[in-house]
Hints:
This protein is of the alpha+beta class.
Amino acid sequence: MQTKVGIIGAGPAGLMLSHLLHLAGIETVILEKRSREDIEGTIRAGVLEQGTVDLLNASGVGERMMREGLTHHGIELQFNGVRHRVNMHELTEGKSIMVYPQHEVIKDLVAARLKAGGEILFNVDNVSLHDVDKQSPKIRFQYDDSDHELSCDFIMGCDGFHGPSRKEIPDSIRKEKQQIYPFGWLGILAETPIANPELIYSNHDRGFALISTRTPEIQRHYIQVNPNDDINNWSDDRIWTDLKARVETSDGWTLPDGPILQKNIVSMRSFVCEPMQYGRLFLAGDAAHIVPPTGAKGLNLAMTDVQVLQRGIERFYQTGSKDLLDRYSEIALRRVWKAQRFSNFMTTMLHRNFNHSPFERSIQLSELDYVTSSRAALTSLSENYIGLPLEWEAERTVFS
Ligand code: RFL
Ligand code: PHB
């Protein structure tokens, strides 16, 4: 088999890259180890930045999102039992975020790729990368019980944090920087009416809580737990009692409850792989970096990585020049580190660190007091949450 660009992974990064390259007339093949049903049913992100919404619309896959997604103009930050609205719409001159689940974005992208005749091989096994530092790299894999080889000009490692691509960058070149947090998130999907018109991020003595949504009938909420805790220790009753205690307000607001449809615990880390490229291999999305979910940045970063890649690859096929591709890592990492900084800031400000001294706890609450009082701090939080413009990177590089 042969193609121009071989893509490993049909997550948001791989699918969007394939879609954008198709629009530019560049052929790709996606290799995905899971089934279509599996990738279309996995519950993950919920918040799309303005730039991601614009990208989905501009590339012709935003129609269902605009119909079914929920546009939010702000969020609420809660501490000491009091809520403070962050009017992001006003503070960012009219921008907003969209609550539209990741698996719906996946469904829309898979449908668009297949409709356009795009090639996605699901349920592939034993993917391995070869000759990534040569002109013609190869991906070997098993599909339908037989061995295959895909020759391409470039390999895109869009295979998430646990995929094989990252390790193809030699140890002598690859630097991995990370921070593990002593926090986990217990996430639930519950059948209740919408709890609040906007997301609530609450810092409480018992730990952080987040109130989010999916549809008018299904809600998504999280509570901070020990990352090593077992989900079996958390009965539905215990979850509701804890969640309610963490988001109730001094003026008597309470959280509606209902049947819990799904629950799980995820741990939290910040991780960056530098560089994000080697030879003809390029990493995008979670394959190269992980952010803790408090800043809602992971999927959005995947989307900006692939926009940078698309421009570099397009230039290569139009002009034969690799200049932009050669600078992919430098351009993408500048943005990645800004998102890391913001995600770390949100995580540190909002979670309860049970190792903290009373002094550190008071500093944390004072930071929340400052952030919710200062227009400058609120503007900074808003522009980061809504998403910094990709043009910032463009202006300092030969990008357009
Ligand atoms: P993905 O989504 O992990 O996709 C990688 C794909 O590669 C496949 N794969 C392989 N295929 C072939 N061969 C192999 N050997 C392979 N190994 C892996 C996998 O099966 C998979 O299909 O990575 P991608 O595309 O980089 O996308 C990243 C996002 O999924 C991730 O950053 C977000 O979910 C993070 N995230 C959030 N991001 C946001 O922007 N906004 C949010 O509100 C938000 N909330 C969240 C989140 C992540 C969470 N969890 C579960 C960690 C909330 C949570 C709780
Ligand atoms: C979600 O709805 O899943 C969600 C929302 C905001 C976050 C993280 C996850 O910061």
